[in-house]
Amino acid sequence: MNLVFKSIDIWYDDLGKELQEEFDRNLRYLVGVSKSWESEINKYCRNNMIPDVKINLNYQVMRQALIDAFDDLMRLKEYHPTEFPNPIKTMAYYVYWIVKRKPITVINDSILEEKRLSDTKKSKILFCNEHYCVQLLVDALFPYLKIDCANNDIHNYANEQLNKFKRYMLYFLTYRLESPKSLEAIMLSATLHPIWEVDKIIWDNPGDVFEEDL
After folding, report:
1. Residue 141 in contact with residue 134, Cβ under 8 Å?
2. Cα distances (angstroms) measured from residue 100 to each of 18, 33, 136
3. Nearest-CA neighbor of 64 among 137, 130, 132, 9?
4. Which residue, 6, 15, 83, 92, could crosslink 19 as a Cys pair with Cβ 3.0–4.6 Å?
5. Distance CA 59, CA 131 (A)
6. Angle in degrees, CA 135, 109, 171, rounded to 5
7. What's the mean pLDDT when you consider all of the chain?
8. Which residues does 53 contact at the CB level (< 8 Å), separation at least 6?
9. Tens digit of pLDDT for each residue in 166-201?
10. Torsion of CA 9, 14, 19, 25, to 10 degrees
11. Is the whole model's pTM more than 0.85, yes or no?
């Protein structure tokens, strides 16, 4: 098989105005989250007297990852009667291609030799694309305001479970990700007994499940 280069500008022009606006909106969002991710990592570093982590976001590579995801999703829409893909399915494809393309790199990799950084923190910096994608997944699952529970025990337990979920997702994205479908299945399962309110469109119009034969 031959690797064929496809002009990004030609691909973009063929989308049409509506999809172009959606593409631009999603690209701005992905770039914005990368900046927030960098800010959160450096907030921890400053609090612990550790030099800042400097990252480089390759805009063109991020754009290519989004193009790959859009191509996959548009092919799906040709065979499935849906106008708007489920937001979890959409994010699963975004994350899959970002992990494959790896648009984020850590410039000052000497930070990984910093003894005051825990092994867990070092893994989040070393696997920066995967850790960034964990934030994308959590935001897609629970997009609404996270209100503290009046019962501190329940709230603390919920936060503990969420942190365990994030840690597992970092492991999964780093070592086990094979397809957007597997990622989508894990994400959907996390909404069955959610910690916070999930986007209602995720389970939009599932039918009366109690009428189904089990």
Report:
1. no
2. 27, 18, 15
3. 9
4. 15
5. 18
6. 40
7. 81
8. 38, 41, 42, 45, 106, 108, 111, 125
9. 889 999 999 999 999 999 999 888 776 655 566 666
10. 0
11. no
